[in-house]
Amino acid sequence: MPKPKVFVTRLIPQKGLEMVHEVADAEVWQEELPPPYEVLLEKVKGVDGVLTLLTDKIDANLMDVAGKSLKVISQMAVGYDNIDVRAATERGLPVGNTPGVLTDTTADFAWALLMAAARRVVEGDRFTRAGRWKTWGPTLLMGPDVHGATLGIVGFGRIGQAVAKRASGFDMRVIYNDRNRREDLEKAMGAQYAALDTLYAESDFITLHTDLNDTTRHMIDDAAFARMKPTAILINTARGPIVDPNALHRALKDGRIAYAALDVTEPEPIPLDSPLLTLDNILLPPHIASASFQTRNKMATMAAANLAAGLNGARLPNCVNPEVYK
Ligand code: DGY
Q1: Of 19, 44, 170, 257, which one has the fewest beta carbons inside 10 Å?
Q2: For atom 7 of ligand 1, which residue has the closest CA?
Q3: Is position 288 within any domain?
């Protein structure tokens, strides 16, 4: 019997790819850049499954172009705001994602950004390479202490909680905001619930861990920045559009806040003519928070397992729209 046909939208880590090839006749997009939407439409025609990344727009039109053969959409990411899940559900299509495996890796990276921003690690390296390190300087490249500071966590799901755990080792005061207050965790995690306004006003570091939806899009806007301390440092490892980039530019330029370290931007990649790139008080790695060897391998194998289950007509081990099974 011929194997089911699938399209994989990029070269994923080897282990995951091997699993895909075992169960399917797979076409794998080999380029560094994602397939343009029009090409994607061509590639998915008549496939049984598609393994996608957060850079692929998976909308109702694409699902219809793929046609009746399409049985599963498997995303190699925990976030899936690039996929029209409602349209998938209407068509009875399960959508898979890769939750859990990247929690600690992403929290580690949020912590790396927080430490690097506070203690000016990247600026220090540039300073040395530019030949400006002439002597030990009593006021050279000073920054705020991390230990003992107040950390505001916006979004207290898995990753937000993992960041709180790291903060306890630094004797920080941790406050959090989430649409669901987690009183059950507060004592154990040493975290207190705070209204957003309070969190903005009292935090030395604000780290974003909410998902992107209609409520959180541009939630960090001029009004939010206006409430923050001028010494505040903003960390974003969630999704770029949670922060309004124009408001961020104004806030950093006018000293409304001190610094931003963003692994994610709006848009991605950030255009080279973005005014944000003219500022010194911003750190902009290219969306790599989950990029540890171990985690990316696990994400690939989880995505392959979801794909394989969907092709078999079995329930996906990690499904974002389980209502399709009702
Ligand atoms: C995700 O999985 O949603 C991350 O943003 C990429 O690792």
Answers
A1: 170
A2: 290
A3: no
pTM of the entire predicted model: 0.95
Q: Is 102 in the pocket of ligand 1 (CB under 6 A)?
A: yes
Q: 3-state class of 71 per DSSP?
A: coil
For residues 222 and 163, membership in a common domain is answered with yes
290 Cβ closer than 6 Å to some ligand 1 atom: yes
Q: The domain that contains 67 carries what CATH number? A: 3.40.50.720
214: three-class secondary structure by DSSP: coil
Please list the active-site residues. Answer: 239, 268, 287
Domain co-membership, 91 together with 42 = yes
Query: Residue 98: which pLDDT band, with cuts at 50, 70 and 90?
Result: very high
CA 128 / ligand 1 centre spacing (Å): 33
Residue 121 falls in which region: left (phi positive, over 0), alpha (psi -120 to 50) or beta: alpha
- Same domain flag for 254 and 305: no
What is the span of the domain harbouring residue 301? 5-101+293-325
pLDDT, tens digit (0-9, with 9 covering 90-100), for 40-87: 999 999 999 999 999 999 999 999 999 999 999 999 999 999 999 999
Nearest to 94 by CA among 317, 320, 301: 320
Query: Of ligand 1's atoms, which has the minimum distance to the CA of residue 290?
Result: 7
